[in-house]
From TrEMBL, chains A, B:
Statement: the UniProt record of this protein carries the keyword Transferase: yes
Protein name listed in UniProt: Nicotinate phosphoribosyltransferase
Domain Nicotinate phosphoribosyltransferase N-terminal residues, every copy: 8-132
Superkingdom of this protein's organism: Bacteria
Post-translational modification remark: Transiently phosphorylated on a His residue during the reaction cycle. Phosphorylation strongly increases the affinity for substrates and increases the rate of nicotinate D-ribonucleotide production. Dephosphorylation regenerates the low-affinity form of the enzyme, leading to product release.
Family per record: Belongs to the NAPRTase family.
Pfam family, one: NAPRTase_N
Chain ranges of the Quinolinate phosphoribosyl transferase C-terminal domain: 137-305
CDD domains linked to this entry: NAPRTase_A
Signal peptide start and end residues: none
Organism: Zhihengliuella flava
Length: 435, 435
């Protein structure tokens, strides 16, 4: 599998901070960085952690190539001492945090990096890029899956976002419970189920809708999905049934009033004897549209734009903050920014999701320096992800996605039912710092 | 420079359509596809075309590798005949369209692909991903630059979006007039000006703010930018001036009421004799925040989240439609979808921006099959981008970005002044089809 060099997915200030701290000597101070979100996107009841596996995959390739070093030298971005440091760069510290697929709430310590300042500092942008993008998509996807109440959701938004974001979005959607994706690169990289049949252009290419349907059925079989709204939907359905017969797999509706259309198309299919032909709808759906289609006889939802743009919240707004480091006295000291409206909480965190007698989540408990003790029961939220520079293989690749999807299902099942409502509201459980 | 294989940035339906059309024979029909947006994002007065150069760069690497073909075979996504076709795939057609950096309006034919159906069909997702993402960012960036009225805007949003989107976003921002970016990979790939100094973590790493500033100045020089809001802003400014002296390059404000703060920090700097020390502000800015800071003594704007998420419009919603193809009779026929709310206009387009006597844009004229004639004057909007499979070198790499930025400046200068207002409104010029 092709691998990207990831080391320049970095903001320049990380390397200039590295340079200045190498000169002051502080670069080698042991340090603890924490990634967290100060708040959930407006109105959301919970967030979904995603991107963790991609961070681990990228970490393995986070090396500065000769070409990259030559660039940094030619542009005089850093000095020779820093270039020497980067030439040998290899993250050798520990990373722990929420397992991918886990839910998060305001101030949940989603990812903690422990290493020297230098090593942790250089990873900042790459870690945040993966977490912020993928968590935003997974958080939106999870609501769509909830709205669909068991009907399968298909990810098909690749064309609405950057081609690499599209791959990560497909991956994040599957973690949050989507059934399949149209994205082949994502299918290839992560072993995801892929789907796809035909677009309007295929119908328009042929001299008639019938010829197009015949061509598709001849090649893909009667079980295929025929797109019936290029010209007239009723005629499209009739032609589809005529061409494919009772074994026609599905029809796809991609325009118009979908609730109304799904109803009469279902009746028409039944009247024509196609009781097992399914109806897939795919036109600009989001979690609210999916919710409003629940009463209609729809068998699958194809979701595009709104999924890959996080349905109004395209980034998770996580930040990466130094929370503790060894000072001049040789001891770890908690540190925190005091700035107005952006204050942070210092100290190495541990997190437990407190549960009630029925196993429902009640509070996000965050301990500073020690494990918080839940009143009744609780589940530890932090797992080791990278140990002395070595990423846990189980979190990466196809296995990582499978585990994350399972984690997501289990964590969701712990939440109070209100979490799955589409109405805006506060975080469904409160975050409590325990010191 | 490292190159990505791009051929699997593809929705599965493109390959199943290819398979079905290879079987029906229609795959080899000459065809014309068009990328366009039915509307601008809500309230926007114009859009900015971006991504074109990246499409051309990606096209050079749009080949199916053996590993990719093995995947498609193993998953039985397509049949052997289709695999054989893909093994030799190389786009050999023509692409023309709006030069990158050009403005677009509803139905502007931004990109036109002419080739066989098979060749054009397979490119759909990759072309739309690049156009939709990059145009969304460039369109938002252009408004920010307008709001900044000549003060430099610095792109620093990498951490809020996917790591590869971040590179494309930096590139798109520079096309729309940003002065520099924090993203090193973008700097490397496209020869962009990069900037960056230090984060709060650098201050917190050291035992005091003074030690941190001393370390930064010792390494990066007195002309550096010191971040003064980790603890107390006034004390931060005083310490910064004390450490760096009158040559201090800039202070950065990243929290609080920026308008008020910029005013008193300016006075304080002046009182301390630091008349040439600049003020940079960087806290969650968007075009509206930039506008409201215009009366404040700010020298540069750092923009992050809102830039890379398109400031409320994270995708440009362009579509890619078959508009003409050779039919059974051997002649080109215009084709168009009739579906409710998603109708398209068939035919090969040409586009001219009509100008008035003073050289101001008045109408987007779109001719079907022939060049539309403007009443007074006009500028042809379409340029050849790819000829018989060979992309124009001038549109790619660093040269492509420079040309696109120049094109953008010139096109913006043609617009009526109202286009640069931040208020929501209709497209600033109307689109007119001429047949």
């Amino acid at each position: 599998m092709w691998q990207r060099p990831t080391a320049l997915f970095t903001d320049q200030y990380e390397l200039t901070m590295l340079q200045a701290s190498l000169k002051s000597g502080a670069a080698h101070r042991p340090a603890v960085f924490e990634a967290f979100a100060r708040r959930l996107p407006e109105g959301r009841r919970y967030g979904v952690v995603a991107g963790t596996g991609r961070i681990l995959e990228g970490l393995e390739h986070f090396r500065f190539t000769t070409e990259q070093l030559d660039y940094l030298a030619a542009e005089r971005i850093v000095d020779d001492i820093t270039l020497d440091y980067l030439r040998d760069f290899r993250f050798s510290g520990d990373i722990y945090g929420y397992a991918e697929g886990e839910l998060y709430f305001p101030h949940s310590p989603v990812l903690i990096v422990e290493s020297t300042f230098a090593e942790a500092c250089v990873l900042e942008t790459f870690i945040l890029s993966a977490l912020n993008h993928d968590s935003a998509i997974a958080s939106a996807a999870s609501r769509m899956v909830a709205a669909a109440h068991g009907r399968p959701c298909v990810e098909m938004g690749s064309r609405r976002t950057h081609e690499e974001s599209a791959v990560a979005a497909a991956r994040a959607a599957m973690i949050a419970g989507f059934a399949s994706t149209s994205n082949l690169e994502a299918g290839h990289r992560y072993g995801l189920t892929t789907v796809g049949t035909a677009a309007h252009s295929f119908t328009l290419l042929h001299d008639s809708e019938r010829e197009a349907f015949e061509a598709q059925v001849a090649s893909l079989g009667r079980g295929t999905t025929l797109l019936v709204d290029t010209y007239d939907v009723e005629q499209g359905v009739r032609t589809a049934v005529d061409v494919a017969g009772p074994e026609l797999g599905a029809v796809r509706l991609d325009s118009g009033d979908l609730v109304d259309q799904a109803r009469w198309v279902r009746r028409l299919l039944d009247d024509l004897g196609n009781h097992s032909t399914r109806i897939m709808v795919t036109s600009d759906l989001d979690e609210h549209a999916i919710g409003s289609l629940q009463s209609a006889p729809v068998d699958a939802y194809g979701v595009g734009t709104s999924l890959v743009t996080g349905s109004g919240a395209p980034t998770a707004s996580m930040v990466y903050k130094l929370v503790s480091r060894v000072g001049a006295n040789g001891e770890y000291e908690d540190v925190a920014k005091a700035a107005t409206n952006k204050a942070s909480v210092g100290g190495r965190k541990q997190a437990v999701r407190a549960l009630n007698e029925r196993g429902r989540a009640t509070t996000e408990l965050i301990g500073i320096g020690e494990r918080p003790t839940p009143a009744i029961a609780g589940r530890d939220l932090m797992v080791p992800l990278v140990e002395q520079g070595t990423p846990g293989a189980e979190y990466m690749g196809a296995e990582g996605v499978r585990r994350a999807a399972a984690r997501h299902r289990e964590s969701i099942s712990e939440l109070p039912g209100i979490a799955r409502k589409m109405q805006k509201g506060e975080a469904v459980i409160e975050t409590e710092f325990v010191t």
